[in-house]
Specification:
There is one protein chain. This protein is about 35% helix and about 15% strand. It has eight helices and nine strands. The strands form two sheets. The chain has a five-stranded parallel beta sheet with strand order 2-7-1-8-9. The protein has a four-stranded mixed beta sheet with strand order 4-3-6-5. A hairpin with a 2-residue loop joins β5 and β6. The radius of gyration is 17 Å and the shape is globular. The chain binds adenosine-5'-diphosphate and guanosine-5'-monophosphate.
Length: about 240
């Protein structure tokens, strides 16, 4: 049954087997227990996942919050697993599934992740469950992941669409990271180092379908929304 959902997003010739059944359910604390059956609520083949990436602090969460508020019936956030501790205001199962490192590693061993990566001192990953559950809901799955995850998604045969959110400048990115007030100096330094890599990687030909510079929030949001709704851009094939 699981495979049926994933095939909706996969290139027809190559299917990756889902390992969902082997994932320990105790780790999947955010996924509603009563998963809808595979019926008419399944998403269409056009309902391709959207992968959003960009340096930490560039404004991805801010933009996505608006997108989900404006289109609650259309888009749903792929809640990742992480070993990072929750920030004030973050909720388990909403922003992330917060798990211990041993539990995260057990989930890796059991093949529970479509992709995962180390970022700073922590691990982050997208579970098969998270993506499949959204497909069952008939909504478009939106992932917010860093560049190693983007590479793995690209290699996974999932036919996602890729959007990169860039800061207007490196100085402004640093201002935003500090202004957010969620990370200590050491962590900010690591995030800025990683930002340089992310910005360099984003120059790779064909890696992203669209780049939005988040300078003016209103303008950037309109561009993100249009991309997610598939408007204007002929970037889907
Ligand atoms: P990310 O999810 O990419 O790490 P956030 O959404 O947490 O980034 O944004 C980082 C900080 O930048 C937050 O304090 C947010 O309010 C601020 N921010 C986001 N977009 C803009 C913008 N266009 N102009 C100014 N500040 C912004
Ligand atoms: P933060 O700690 O600021 O929430 O996230 C740090 C970085 O991890 C961000 O760039 C974010 O996009 C990325 N991230 C969040 N979830 C995942 C995930 O499931 N997989 C990968 N590869 N990166 C993720």
């Amino acid at each position: 049954m699981t495979l049926i959902f994933l095939t909706r997003f996969l290139k027809p010739s190559k299917l990756i087997p889902s390992t969902t059944k082997r994932t320990p359910s105790r780790l999947l604390i955010s996924i509603p227990r009563s998963i809808p059956k595979a019926t008419t609520t399944m998403s269409s083949a056009e309902n391709r996942p959207i992968v959003i990436s960009g340096p930490s602090g560039t404004g991805k969460s801010t933009l996505l919050k608006r997108l989900f508020a404006a289109h609650p019936q259309k888009f749903m956030f792929s809640v990742s697993h992480t070993t990072r501790k929750p920030r004030p205001g973050e909720q388990d199962g909403v922003h992330y599934n917060y798990v211990s490192r041993p539990d995260f590693e057990a989930m890796i061993d059991k093949g529970g992740f479509i992709e995962y990566a180390k970022f700073g001192d922590n691990l982050y990953g997208t579970s098969y469950e998270a993506v499949e559950w959204i497909a069952r809901e008939g909504k478009t799955c939106v992932l917010d992941i860093e560049m190693e995850g983007v590479k793995q998604m690209r290699a996974s045969h999932l036919q996602a669409r890729y959007l990169f959110v860039a800061p207007p400048s490196f100085e402004e990115l640093e201002r935003r990271l500090r202004g957010r007030g969620t990370d200590g100096e050491v962590d900010i330094g690591k995030r800025l180092d990683r930002a340089k890599e992310e910005l360099e990687f984003a120059k790779t030909e064909g890696i992203h379908d669209k780049v939005v510079v988040n300078d003016d929030l209103e303008k950037a949001y309109k561009e993100v929304e249009a991309f997610c709704l598939g408007e204007k851009e002929k970037d889907q094939e």
